[in-house]
Amino acid sequence: MPDDASPPMRRLMLLRHAKSAWPEGVADHRRPLAGRGRKAAPAIGAFIARRGLIPDLAIVSTARRAQETWELVAEALPHKVAARDAVGIYEVAASAMLDVIRKVEPSVEKLLIVGHNPGMAELALLLAGGGDAVALERLKDKFPTAGLAVMDFTIEQWSEIAPGAGRLVQFVTPRLLDGS
């Protein structure tokens, strides 16, 4: 008898923090969002809500600009989303973020990471093995502040995530949303 069950799917969303300010005398970890970032983050949140991309869990860098980005995104979502702060994604390489993702419990099907470049861009390019070719070219060109990469994986649990195994579904930036 053929198995009609669809393969297990996990969705990973990588969100770079929104545009931050550079106040004099403020440590990097404590930098707040700039006005442009305070406008872009809710727009990305509204996009996430409209497209039904609401995560089961958000893992957010402990940096103030990432925390503020998540707060503004979360306000645009139709219901409260579980969030976890993670020092392990503050300005780290893609491999360190991948380690954090691999430890996420299997019950989480849609995962959002709110972090920083260059690690976010490196991770997105490391994981994307195919998908939307136009979006992939834009991603290769630049992963701007408040950019959102959405990738699907045919895996049963996050510990199985591997380089090249993701399918880039879309890559959205505030500039693209302004034009739509």
Return the CATH architecture: 3-Layer(aba) Sandwich
Low-pLDDT windows of residues = none
Strand order of the largest sheet: 3-2-4-1-6-7-5
Q: Specify the helix fraction band.
A: 25-40%
Number of DSSP strand runs: 7
Mean pLDDT: 92
- The top-level CATH class is Alpha Beta
Structural class: alpha/beta
Q: What does the largest sheet look like?
A: 7 strands, mixed
Could you state the CATH homologous superfamily? Phosphoglycerate mutase-like
- Distance linking N and C termini: 47 Å
Q: What's the number of structural domains?
A: 1
Shape: globular
CATH topology: Rossmann fold
Which strand-content bin applies to the residues? 15-25%
SS element count, helices: 6
Order of helices and strands: EHEHEHEHEHEEH
Rounded Rg: 16 Å
Write the topology of this structure:
Layout: E1 10-16, H1 35-50, E2 57-61, H2 64-75, E3 82-86, H3 94-102, E4 110-115, H4 119-127, E5 128-131, H5 133-141, E6 148-153, E7 166-172, H6 174-178
Parallel strand pairs: 1-4, 2-3, 2-4, 5-7
Antiparallel strand pairs: 1-6, 6-7
Helix pairs in contact: 1-2, 3-4
